[in-house]
Each structure stands twice: as C-alpha cells, then as structure tokens.
Specification:
Chain lengths: 175, 389
C-alpha cells in the first residue's frame, strides 16, 4: 500500500495560512504523484497541486477538517482533468513517452514494457484512468474512490473492473 | 492479481517514483502575496465586493440569473445528489442532507422508505449497506464488508456481496424494512459486480477478471445461470421493469450493443447496434427495454424498428456516468463543458477562474424526437450525481 498522507484527524488550527501550509508539507508529495500519474509531466503537476492548495486556502476553514485530504484529492483531479482538456483543445501536447528520447527523465527510464502500459493507459477515458490510479497506486477502497470522484461505489468498482479489462485488451493489441 | 494488474502497478510505481521521496515542495504561493499581508486586502476587497453585490442590482434593477445559485430543487423525475463540501440528496420535494460522520457514503438508488447506500465507518474502514432515511439518518443493514448494493424491482429488498477471502463471494438478499437476510448464494468470484435486478433475477459478473460473462441469480429458486456471451465487454444494463437486457460486446475495435431476452440460458438477441472505435462499456436501456442509448455518439436506437435518432444536446455527452431515464421516453443527460467553469470564491483579489466547482447542466431529451432542453443547472458544486428512480 502506498501512503500519500495520513487520513486521520487533522487538528483544527486557528490560523488558516498556517493550517494550509501544514497540510501542504504533509500531503504535497502524495498529491504531486497523483497529479503526475494523470497529467504525465511534473511542471503541470506542480501547477495543479499549487492551485489545489490555493483553493483550499480560499475555502478555509472546512466544516470538517477530516475532509481536507479528500478535498485536495478531488481538487487535484479536477485540475488535472482541466489540463488534459486544454491539451485536447490545443492539440499541441506530446505525451512524454512519445517525445524524442532524453526529453524527459521519466520517458528515458521507461522500459518498453512500461511504455506499452503508459500508451494503453493514455488511451483510456480520463475518468477510467483516474479510477485506476486511485485503485492501483493509492490502494483506495472503491468507496473512497467514489467519494473522491463524486460517483457511486458501484460505478467506481465497475469502472475499475472494466478499466482493467480494456487495458488488458489494449496491451494485447500493442503486442 | 492478473498480469495486467501487476504491470499497471509496476508502471504507476515507476512513474510516481520520478518524484522521489526526497523531493521538496516549492514554496507555497497562496495568491502571489503573503497570506498575512493578503488578509486585510481580502477583507477590504470583500467589503467592496459586498457593496457592489448589494448595490448593482438596485441600480440596474436586474440580476443575472446565471450567477444566482440554483438553490431550489430541480423538477427532475429522478433523485440526484449535489456533491460539494457536504452532500445533499434531492428527490422531488424532499431534500436530505447526507451525514458526514463516516469514512465515505455513496447513495445508490431509491428503495422503500429511503435510498440504498454503501458506507464506510471510517476512511479505509469497514463497509456496510445502509438505508438513508428521509430524516437524514442511516440504518445499517446486513453483514460487514459488503460490496455494492442493488435494489429489487419493487424496492423492498436489496442485494449485496461479501467476499469470503477464499476466492469466492456470498451474495445476500436483505429486507429493506427489517434488515433480515432473505436469501444467500455463494459464487466462485473473488469480487462481484452487481449489474441489475430485473424480472429474471439479479444480474452480476466477476469483477476484475479480464474475461468474464454475465451471470443471473434467481434468489427465489436459487438458480445460478452463466450466460455464455463471446466478447462480453463488462457492460450490462437490466432495467427493473423489463425482462430485456442490453449488453456490450467487443472484438478488437469492433463493438456491438445487443438487446435481447434470456431464453434457455442464452440471450436471444432482438436488436444489434454496432460500430468501431471508442469506449462502449456503459450501456443504457430505457425502463421499458425499447430504447438503446449510444452516449458517445449522442444517438438513441429504437429496438423494435432499428431507427436511429440523433440527440440534439450541446456539449460533450459523456458515456460515464451513464445517462438516466426519467421515464420510458425521457432521458436525463448530464453535460459538463468549459463554459460551465465558474469562479467559486466570493473573495476578490485572487481573481482566477476555478474549474474545481462547476455548474452542471442536466438536459431532458425526448428519445422519440431527439429534442433536448436544459432541465436544471446546479449551483457550483464538485459533482452532480443522477440516481436511478
């Protein structure tokens, strides 16, 4: 199981900026990884996470401090989705795996086997990809995925299950 | 774990590792100014903003309808949940705040005396089936570690599944009113996807299996039937009031949506609608089993005649979450586009458009003509979830 932050109760601070800064230090690494798994490049991921914390700050204090991490996850995913949507509109973005070798550290290090998985994953609908990342990297339960994405638990499970089936098929086709 | 799952985990881990554990976050920039210095500015700007908000409508005699939160419940024929910092369920005249003192809670569909939910007692904790009552209280029913819930056609019962940890799962039918266990059945699937409950019984399949097949369990007789279906692509819709189902099959890039009835353990197909490319794993069929929805292409297909009608709805019509039928001829479609992005903060001074909370527009489409009209636009929220009626 990969941890990306404690899910337990976060003390309610009096000072909004200090509380958000504390959350930032605690959850930045996990959230940046979540974003990079969706948007595929670090610069966009850092922007996405920065904006998520800015939004949290504007809304602070939350009614329930326990909801801070789910809120941040949802905000990161929402913004990652916007990044992907803007790329689709611009049609200018080249995924790291398709760039000439050496243009991105992550691409250079990817074994061909992983490149296939990356290509297959990129061909899935964004929502399916989000569910698979939350399920297979963060090991979230379907109910937690559902809450993060604002869908029903059965939809989360069905999407993950079907996503694996589609991924299997795509990987076969790439062979 | 399948080979695909192993490869996926390996890829995700390697990709995430491009951000090493030792990475240090850049300085937190909460709006390009020091937060402490920002407070007085924000307060002053908020005060100015408040004055403007109060005075401009008085001066102009006008308010912009599209900037007013739509806090009145929508006149939709199905329940829906507005998901924001808090979740609120709307079902016709009823508004039910969903309690938040739990790990997570997902509303599934309407049942007798409330709405079926799955909920966790704490984040990462134990999952249960619960009935959300109109007063906002949750009545937990059935065993712990329940996965998924599906209501019977009359809403008096629900079915859930409980993995037994030995590669199998126990299906359990519960009485909604009393929580009493009415029937159970063990199936050889580590995880079960509950797909629907119609006149034939309960439709399910094995989840997380690269290849699987639809399975029908009739809890009244205890009969379990595996319905052989080459190319079954993990998509099945079984409207409660019909005995007709819709399945998705796929061979390479070619997909088909097939409707039919179960005859001698096989699906007797009475309509096929096929194409190539694109995902097609979320089929939707009208309550009377007469209309197929092709969300990706914004088309509906009449099962009897094969007539294809274009749905005239603006924006992208996502296949997922699936559109929901309000009745036999009216389809509710949720669209979300860049035009829905709104500024969520009333605090001036930061001034960027924020895509996190958006207005979601629900369109009502007449599937006999293809005409669609906006039926409801939500206030800015993270998500709007339409539920089966």
């Amino acid at each position: 199981m990969v941890s990306y932050g404690e899910i337990g109760a976060i003390p309610v601070p009096d000072d909004g900026p200090a509380a958000v800064a504390r959350l930032y230090r605690r959850h930045w690494l996990g959230l940046i990884r979540l974003a990079v798994l969706i948007v595929d490049d670090r610069q966009s991921a850092e922007d996405v996470v920065q904006e998520a914390f800015t939004e949290l700050y504007r809304r602070w204090p939350l009614n329930d401090p326990d909801k801070a991490l789910p809120y941040l996850r949802a905000a990161v995913l929402n913004r990652s989705r916007s990044v992907l949507r803007r790329r689709r509109v611009a049609r200018l973005y080249t995924p790291p795996a398709d760039r000439p070798s050496g243009s991105a550290e992550s691409a250079a290090e990817l074994h061909e086997d992983r490149r296939e998985v990356q290509r297959a994953l990129q061909s899935l609908p964004t929502r399916t990809r989000e569910v698979l990342v939350l399920r297979y990297y963060f090991d979230l339960a379907h109910a937690e995925i559902a809450q993060t994405l604002g869908i029903s638990e059965s939809s989360a499970r069905a999407t993950a299950s079907r996503g694996i089936a589609i991924l299997t098929q795509k990987l076969k086709e790439l062979r | 774990m399948t080979d695909t799952e192993t490869r996926l985990r390996d890829y995700l881990q390697s990709q995430a590792d491009t951000i090493p554990d030792t990475s240090q976050p850049p300085d937190l920039d909460l709006g390009r100014q020091s937060p402490r210095r920002l407070w007085p500015i924000l307060a002053a700007a908020a005060a100015i903003g408040a004055v403007l908000i109060l005075t401009v409508p008085l001066l102009t005699g006008l308010t912009r309808q599209d900037q007013k939160p739509a806090d009145k419940p929508a006149a939709l024929g199905v329940p829906y949940v507005l998901i924001d910092k808090e979740q609120v369920l709307h079902d016709r005249e009823q508004t039910v705040p969903i309690p938040s003192d739990h790990g997570s809670l997902n509303v599934s569909e309407q049942v007798s005396g409330g709405w079926a939910t799955t909920w966790m007692d704490r984040p990462g904790g134990t999952s249960f089936v619960g009935i959300l009552r109109p007063d906002g209280k949750i009545t937990s029913i059935g065993p712990a570690n329940a996965l998924g819930v599906q209501a019977s056609p009359d809403g008096s019962q629900v079915v859930t599944s409980v993995p037994n940890g030995k590669g199998g799962s126990r299906l359990v039918v519960l009485d909604v009113a009393t929580g009493r266990e009415l029937a159970s059945q063990t199936v050889p699937y580590a995880m079960v996807g509950l797909l629907g409950w119609n006149k034939n019984g309960i439709w399910l399949h094995e989840d997380y299996a690269p290849t699987t097949t639809p399975v029908l369990w009739d809890p009244t007789t205890g009969t379990v039937t595996e319905v052989k279906m080459p190319g079954y692509a993990h998509g099945l819709s079984a409207p409660a009031a019909s005995d007709r189902i819709l399945v998705t099959t796929r061979t390479g890039e070619a997909w088909c949506l097939k409707t039919g009835r179960l005859t001698d353990g096989k699906l007797a197909v009475d309509r096929e609608y096929c194409g190539t490319g694109g995902p097609h794993n979320y089929p939707a069929l009208s309550p009377d089993g007469q209309t197929i929805v092709d969300s990706a292409r914004k088309k509906v297909i009449d099962v009897e005649t094969g007539k294809v009608t274009n749905l005239r709805v603006d924006g992208e019509m996502p296949g997922w979450p699936q559109p929901v039928f309000e009745d036999d001829t009216h389809l509710l479609v949720l669209t979300r586009g860049s035009g829905d992005v709104v500024e969520t903060s009333v605090t001036p001074g930061v001034g960027r458009l924020e895509p996190a909370s958006v207005r979601h527009t629900v369109y009502r489409c007449d599937v006999t003509t293809g005409s669609c009209d906006a039926a409801y636009t939500s206030p800015p929220v993270y998500n709007l979830q339409l539920l089966e009626p």
